[in-house]
Amino acid sequence: MGDTAKAQHPHLRATLILCCLAQFMVILDVSVVNVALPSIRSALHFTEQDLQWVVNAYTVTFAGFLLLGGRAADLIGRRLVFVCGLALFAVASLAGGLADSQTTLIAARAAQGLGGAVIAPASLSILTTTFPEGAQRNRAVGIWGAMGGIGGAAGVLLGGVLTDLLSWRWILFINVPIGLCAALATQRLVAEGRAEDRSAGFDLSGAVAATLGLSVLVLGIVRTDVTGWGAASTLALLGAGVVLLAVFLAIEGRLARHPLMPLRIYRSRTLTAANLVVMLLGGASIAMWFFLSLYLQQVEGYSPLRAGFAFLPMTACIVAGSALASRGVTKVGVKPLLAAGMLTQAVGLLWFTGISVGGSWLGEVLVPSLLCAIGIGLSFVPGTIAAVSGVKPEEAGLASGLVNTSRLVGGALGLAILAAIATARTNSELHSAAAAHGARAALTGGFELAFAVSAAFSAAGCLIALFGLPRLRPRAADQRQAVPAEA
């Protein structure tokens, strides 16, 4: 594969444990803050529309620099980049835990996202170049991929436990000893390695343009509650975001010698449609966790710990749905399974529009949450397989990075749009006759609208899967290779 390693006899088990631990920590921090959001809001006096930046600061930088992080690992050295990413993640977590202002916390979360964008691709590169090709590598990468699902599921529960028993700050402090210990152990136990062909350079300008463009676009959307959609400042921010993203496309298409995202890859109808579906999946699912956490705590009065336990059935169904999809995709094909998953999630999100003040968890939350969770599980595997099936074998790694980026970009933009819509509806109801029912009713009205628009996102993903994807029926061997590639 054109790779060299300084260590002739790397510690395989230690390498696997360290890479999986790092991946678990990085994915966990996407969801761990959700249950702690009301506590963070009270402590640092966030407004409703600014609170989402605690989540988006992480996902935007994660998505924007993910491809660049993988390229840095190949050119500079996988172990070195991995260790630096762990150290940055630990220091940023410490800064976030100590934050006494909104700006400091958001900046720390952005730095965490940058560290995660380095750790995730570097850890996968270490595994694929350390373990010999075949059963050993497949098993190692499969376990690494499972850590992503476990991290996302455990984040909500762990966030509730730490917030309730200690403080919201401990959801960040806990990363410090884990990150630093993993960095020290990696330096001693993991083999160094880099690609022998290092003639290609960094597309730093592309990564910066994409991240700035996305950030400015999200900022323009979240400020609409204060300024309105037609205000000059809003239009200026939205226009600047679009221009920066256009500059990114120009860099990738014409200027960059070694682009992070070669536009030729989008000639594949399968890849393009799959990435659109995954982007909508990310927008709907990340927003669902966000708004459901706020509803349970701000409207229903759940403690963080109780809210964390309320999500347990959902996490179990996500795992079950993913397992079902892994087996069913070879029998029924990618297209029908992906469409069914997105439709199931759309039904669950539409059901959430029936939430009310004082509603029962069993009647208004449990059933739609299980439908959403099964839909997420059914959609993730076939969406990933479709995203890597439409490219050449030598571009499978690029396709894997793109589908991860699409999910995170969709989550950031979707959350920004839905938070702006929900806040506008809440404020409108507070200044109308609905105010007689109290602030909790106004909040619920905003959440209901957010869930309705999320359902529209999922329904659009279902339609794209039905009419945009060709019919794919991957062989069992292809499926086993495709899933770990995205993991």
List keywords for this structure.
487 residues; mainly alpha; Growth Hormone, Chain: A; two-stranded antiparallel ribbon; 2 strands; disordered C terminus
Describe this structure in words.
The chain has helices at 12-31, 37-44, 48-51, 53-76, 78-97, 102-130, 135-165, 170-173, 175-189, 204-222, 224-227, 232-255, 269-299, 304-310, 312-332, 334-351, 361-389, 396-430, 439-468, 476-486; strands at residues 3-5, 193-195. By secondary structure, it is an all-alpha fold. It folds into three domains: 8-192, Growth Hormone, Chain: A (Up-down Bundle); 204-259; 262-487, Up-down Bundle (Growth Hormone, Chain: A). The protein has a two-stranded antiparallel sheet. Helix 1 (12-31) packs antiparallel against helix 9, helix 13 packs parallel to helix 18 (396-430) and helix 15 (312-332) runs parallel beside helix 17. The longest helix has 35 residues, at 396-430. Residues 1-9 and 474-487 have low confidence and may be disordered.
